[in-house]
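Quick note —
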Amino acid sequence: MASRLPFRRFRHSLLLPLVKFFAAVARVMPRKLIWVTAAVFGVAASLIPGRSRRIFRINRKHIIRPAGLKVRLSHVYRYIISGMSDFINLSYRSDDEFRKAVEIRGAEHMQAALSLGKGVIAITAHYSAWELIPRAILLLGHKVGIVSRELSHRETSEYFNNLRARYGTELIDRGGGIARLMRVLRDNTAVGILIDQDTLGVDSDFVDFMGLPARTPVGPSQLAVRFGIPVLTLHISRGKEGRYTLHIDEPLDLSVYEGDKGYIKLTADLTGRIEEWVREDPEQWVWIHERWARRPDWAPGLR
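Predicted structure written out below.
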């Protein structure tokens, strides 16, 4: 273990310069070229042996193929790289340029939910260029917050947090408890929360996702049911012409989820909506996460 520490420190020392170089290139590169470049790097990344490639193979064996889906790892990487590049690029563009790149459908659903004055819990996923969602909602004239976590590399985390907060998005630390989250919601803010990963250190339970039980955060559903906070789902997808579409769904009827375990059913239904997006265009979802790694006691681990 000790022999690995110098290499780990060296790797961490290179991360911030690499991120800054990547950001500098993405900031000035034409968006059409971003998509082409992402294809090249996507192929290269898919050929590198390592943890992500191993996770993808496990997910392909147990989830992708049984679901009848076609997913290429190089295309998954292409969407990840292009999505992050577009986020950086559009962070330095005017509101008019951003609107040309991102179309919004269902804005009336967000308006209706916020009209109740309780804030909104907006559930989304690591799908396509998800980092573009907060600014799109801000441009509708609403207050926006996102629940996020600090990356292990502090300087890199600060860089991306500065981009996220550039146009007024309020950042809420996932590990900071619910007091600040509730304060932001009371200020009638739309708070974005991602629940499509097995997140350590948060209350979670198993619900079905893509045909298998998946450990999923339940905190957002608990808050929605307990305090009557409107909850809706939304996601962004990339079209063939390079333009993004933000889809905002109708708020869910919380009266359906009353009772002691109502929040579990709500979590399952929210996860079901995410599954619909994944099945619609599976290569836009992040398949290199260990989504099904931790199993219920009665289920074997995926290998």
